Amino acid sequence: MSEPEEALAAYRRLGLGVCAPIAQGLINETYLVKGHAGRYVLQRVNAIFDPAIHENIAAVTRHLRDRGLTTPELVPTDDGALWVEAGGCWRVLTYVEGEAHDRAEEPAQLWAAGRLVGRFHAALETLAYDFVGTRIGVHDTPAHLARLRGSLAEFGAHALYDEVAPLARQILTAAEALPPLPASEDQPCHGDLKLSNLLFAGKEAVCLIDLDTLGPMALAHELGDAFRSWCNPKREDAPGLARFEVDFMAAAWRGYVEGLAREPTAEEREAARIGVEHVCLELSARFAADALRESYFGWDSTRYASRGHHNLARAQGQWSLYEAVVRCRAERERAL
């Protein structure tokens, strides 16, 4: 019996059978499965996540559903468990019809994305829940910069050092000029709002998926990561001069405010303005460090000679995007 079949044995009442792998995300192993009542999603959860996160997913999706938002939900095993051990941590989720996109094509698409995220954040303002098993330090920018410095000191003999080092020094210098984030309490967030984590039906944004990163986070990091993904028309690892589409950001912000259904505070506007600078620079630092360490991020062996080469391309792409974001700071301020 294969591991997916072993996992599905915990859901015998549903009569589930593996249908096909789904190319959804880079972290979890995902399958479409069929049962007596229709389609479901089967996932092997990456070991970087504590299985306790399923408590978070259950609490948040129940809260969203009760407030009228569409969301995938965990399906309990026949014994009532939220996940099952079968050569790893496996779970079954309800299937939501929709299409994911890697890049935005027009502002209207991002207005819809922003409105959905605004509704999501508004719903979670009333969530009374203590998150468990969350990953610590994902957006600890000083720690990521320290890791980059340490990587330069430790991996001077690496074959890519002479290419990584000048970029790393630019990143570290730029970090000294980062404007401070607004002082605000962390709030319940999705934690990974890249565009491919939203499902669309036509031009309507239907729901958020990949809920493993749910937890308290600064709004600046949440929206900064969204705008980084949504407003860049190029691939994350694309060489050359990046662009940041301010009209995309303006549309996303208008949608977000409508979904939030209240006037944003001054701190929330500042978070939206500054967050994207922090996230782009932080991510370029993380990629540059892993270009030398070659120990964390996955890589595409069909396009790059090594993990280091792919992460160097990513670091260059994110640094170029950071520069583009800084160049349009005044335009972004007007958009907000």
Key traits:
single chain, 336 residues, alpha+beta, Phosphorylase Kinase, domain 1, Aminoglycoside 3'-phosphotransferase, Chain: A, domain 2, 2 domains, two-stranded antiparallel sheet, 10 helices
How would you describe this protein?
There is one protein chain. The protein has 336 residues and is α+β, with helices and mostly antiparallel strands. The protein has 2 domains: 3-94, 2-Layer Sandwich (Phosphorylase Kinase, domain 1), CATH 3.30.200; 107-335, Aminoglycoside phosphotransferase (APH), C-terminal lobe (Aminoglycoside 3'-phosphotransferase, Chain: A, domain 2, Alpha-Beta Complex), CATH 3.90.1200.10. Helix content is 45%, strand content 13%. It has 10 helices and 9 strands. It has helices at residues 3-8, 53-66, 107-124, 141-154, 161-175, 219-230, 246-260, 266-293, 307-327, 329-335, and strands spanning 17-21, 29-35, 38-45, 84-85, 89-94, 187-189, 198-201, 204-208, 215-217. A 5-stranded antiparallel β-sheet has the order 1-2-3-5-4. A two-stranded antiparallel sheet has the order 6-9. The protein has a two-stranded antiparallel sheet with strand order 7-8. Strand 1 (17-21) and strand 2 (29-35) form a beta hairpin. Helix 3 runs parallel beside helix 7. The longest helix is centred in the C-terminal third of the chain and has 28 residues, at 266-293. It starts with a helix and ends with a helix. The mean pLDDT is 94.
